[in-house]
Amino acid sequence: MPSNQILLEEPLRMALVLEPSKPSFFPATKIVGTLGLKSSSVETISGCLNAGMSVARFDFSLGDAAYHQETLENLKIAVKSTKKLCSVMLDTIGPELQVVNKTEHPISLEADTSVVLTPDQNKEATSNLLPINFSGLSKAVKEGDTIFIGQYLFTGSENTSVWLEVTELDGEDVVCLIKNSATLTGQMYTLHVSQIRIDLPTLADQDKEVISTWGVRNNIDFLSLSYTRHAEDVRHARAYLSKLGDLSQTQIFAKIENIEGLIHFDEILQEADGIILSRGNLGVDLPPEKVFLFQKAAIYKCNMAGKPAVVTRVVDSMTDNLRPTRAEATDVANAVLDGCDAILLGAETLRGLYPVETISIVGKISAEAEKVFNQDMYFKKTVKFVGEPMTHLESIASSAVRAAIKVKASVIICFTSSGRAARLIAKYRPTMPVISVVIPRIKTDQLRWTLSGAFELRQSLIVRGLFPLLADPQHQADLTNATNDSVFQVALDHGKAFGIIKPHDRVVVCQKVGDASVVKIIELED
């Protein structure tokens, strides 16, 4: 039973900090790992899954469909060998501006000298001239504006990032003053113009091509919509997915990366299935002292809406180092205490030297932070926000969590077909794991019969505290009576196998019986 909760608001013996952590189930907070480059082999991906990765992200800013398909096939092999569930997230390119360096030779930029940004991609990149992939930059910026150029998935600690100040507009060219010395090396450099709208579509043609081919082929669970700026961006992406068969079930996570997305956050949240707080680019747009404020406000809004919040850029230094900095370790913990559902690792697992170790340490920090998460205060805050009268399902979900805490249940078991009930339970952040038993449903389009359930199961893998299990297809639909002991027993066996359910534990069960939703408290025997 979850008896290791500690409240920081209460007197705490400092010696407790030194006590070794007890081995536990995977942390409630999920980990999204970006695969490729240094993390594409079956061996490394298996290590990532065993360390706690539950969502694999494929970023199409780097690599083509064939490259990512090879990595995904290795992921499938790793999933089978480790018996770990993992969902797939496709990250779009969007209106991303890039420096075009065809020779890939290092480019040295010296402070207090000038460099010209030109849309003429036929020109060679030099210390004084940088070709870019956008012809409208000179119309978007003005003298005095700030432009940032950083290595793809820049960590901020490299000497490969440069700040520029616009000094002159010359036709389609933009003349800039270099503010700091740097050397541009590596495969790709992205360009970010601070607080300026770039007139390019959020879902570009190349993104649509990738989604309609690679995405359809692999039944992607999540679409990470880069540079989401308006709610209409999400609606447009959803309309496009709805035309692509099973991808109508794909969840859209809006990636907030600039001031425009921040300003329209509330409308975007209403349309999206989840939010990714892209602190890399957003950290360029926002003053440093405002980044934490956005993070806390955005996560709170996501929590109250019951939609997953994903935080990025937490342990950048682990791209090259085996341990995070003290500030990074605290940053991970604070993201968990703020209420985030998942931590997204980019450069750390994509091109980092220690992808498995990074996932492991982020998981350990998350687990420690969860022990001091003030669930009682969070629960009261959420109930107050929801208000009265609650919807039927919201009332059942909050009651299940309240009952589980009062009787000190070791686990909540929720039978669901759409996953919605389980997500609502997770919204109230119970201190115990929620085993979401997804019951398949038979569907037909009048041409063929299909079973649902796989999408719903995998999409639970990004929700804090949810641990999904797919029921046998013979147990159909909504469990209309309480005779489905075999499904319940499978859930119990699953919990026992992971050590979270023991003899004489109490278990709270949430299920449908006929047209009614029921919360039961069961005390287990030997």
Descriptive notes:
This protein is an alpha/beta fold. It is 34% helix and 23% strand. It is built from 17 helices and 24 strands. The chain has an eight-stranded parallel beta barrel, surrounded by seven helices. Strands 4-12-8-9-10-6-7 form a seven-stranded mixed sheet. Helix 5 links the parallel strand 13 and strand 14. Helix 10 packs across helix 12. The radius of gyration is 24 Å and the shape is globular. One of its GO terms (molecular function) is potassium ion binding. Belongs to the pyruvate kinase family.
Quantity of strands, as a count: 24
Cα shape: globular
Question: How many individual helices?
Answer: 17
Strand order of the largest sheet: 1-2-3-13-14-15-16-17
Strand content: 15-25%
Report the structural category: alpha/beta
Radius of gyration: 24 Å
Give helix % range: 25-40%
pLDDT < 50 runs, ≥5 residues: 477-483
| Biggest sheet layout | 8 strands, parallel, barrel
What value does the average pLDDT take?
Answer: 90
N-to-C span: 16 Å
Family: Belongs to the pyruvate kinase family.
InterPro entries: Pyr_Knase, Pyrv/PenolPyrv_kinase-like_dom, Pyrv_kinase-like_dom_sf, Pyrv_Knase-like_insert_dom_sf, Pyrv_Knase_brl, Pyrv_Knase_C, Pyrv_Knase_C_sf, Pyrv_Knase_insert_dom_sf
Keywords: ATP-binding, Glycolysis, Kinase, Magnesium, Metal-binding, Nucleotide-binding, Pyruvate, Transferase
Catalytic activity: pyruvate + ATP = phosphoenolpyruvate + ADP + H(+)
